[in-house]
Each structure stands twice: as C-alpha cells, then as structure tokens.
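User: Here's a chain of 259 residues. Predict its fold as tokens.
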Amino acid sequence: MTLREKLEAGPCFGTFLKLPRHEVVDILALAGLDFVICDMEHAQMNEEDARLVARTCAERGLTCIVRLPEPTSGVVNRLLEAGATGIQMPRLQTSAEVAALVDMTRFPPAGRRSVGNANRLAGYGAVPIERYIQRANEAVLTVGQFETRAFEEPLHAVTEHLDVAFIGPVDLSVDYGMPGQADHPSIQEHIRKVEAAAARTGTVMGAFAGTAAQAERYLAAGYRFLAVSGDVTLLSTGAKELVNILDGLRQTARQGTQT
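Assistant: Prediction complete.
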C-alpha cells in the first residue's frame, strides 16, 4: 500500500531522518513508522547520502520523503529514481513554486519529469514504460511547508496542487518574531488560514510534532501526515533517560559502600 493510499484511509506517522545510515533506516522501519522525511535542508548530508537513504527505504518498504531546500529537476529525478516517494519543499509561498515542484515530480501529461528506466523502480527496463510512468505518478507526493508569515493569496491557489500542506511551527514562530510561541493567537490564526485553504482544495494537512502529545492535538484537528520528533532527538532522549537511570544506580551503589 502506498503512503497516498494510507493517507486516504487515516493518519500516518513518520519522523525526521538526519543520520544518513542504512542502520538508522532499518531501525525506523522495524519500529513500524509509515514514512521518514530525509532532511537535506538541515542535516549534514549530500545527494549521495540521500540516495542511500531512499534506496534503503525502498528495500525496507518504508516511504521516504526528501526535504529538499532548492529542488531542481536533475536532483529530484535522481532521488525519485533511487527510491524516494516524494519531495518536501520548505518555506513554500507561491503557486508558481508548487507548479514547478509538480512539473519536476510527475511524468507527462501531469508534469515535465524526464523519463529514464535504468533504475530499480523500473526494473532496470523490465517494467513496461507505461506501467512504470502510471505507478510513479500515482505514488509520488508533493509536500509544501508553510512556515513563513508571507504567502500568496488566495492561499487555496497554493494548496490546490499539493498533496500535503505541512505546518512548520518552529520556523513560523520565528518568522513572526515569537520564537517557540506557536500557540500565540496570531500564529494560530495563520495556521487556520492554511487549514481552510487545504480543506477547500482537498489537501491533506501535515505538521511537525515534537512529542506524541502534540501529535494528538494535530490529530484532533484532522491532520493526517504527522512527522513526530526525529532520529537525533530520539537517540538523545533515550541516551539521557538511560544516563539518568544509571546515575541513580551509581548513587545507590555509593551509599551502599558507605554503610
């Protein structure tokens, strides 16, 4: 089942991936996540790293969305051919940006993506070209991040051809001059405008949630594409929790030797 089909059925959960290692992909796939967002915007990875993540995700049956700060047709094509299922564009503001993203990610007549079948998804030429094109166009997802104060109006013209409208609450709060205050009324009003536009165009709402409790709030608001935490944060949190427990054991052991 594709992620698009899963989203039609209900909420899907993923996480941000910043460590471009196949072991990390394996762990996240085994954990049962629906998708990962391979972060080429902020993580220390290059295109080759991202292609490794995409290939490994495809082998593990884990959907890979690549967050790409400056999408170009060649890079997008190589990422999709490597196994990525979609492209996420940060700081999206205009319908022209969406149109360019759609053109890069979809084969004609839906877009302008160039066709090449010397890749795993096309069976290195074994899959009939018509079937490959149809399946690729049906599966690919375009995700636009709404995280800036400015945006083109009417906003529904921006969300119209997106598969997912994704709220970036941290950057949005910074752009409003209120770092970390995503619950401020002005920011919440902004988010309501995005939600209204997405509802009008039938676009799935998505967001970053730092915790499961935050994810629950988004679910209550009808969001279905939720990126919860990230691999680095999960590693850091787990390590800190373990060290806290071990420190307690150490203190107990010291007290035992003093009696």
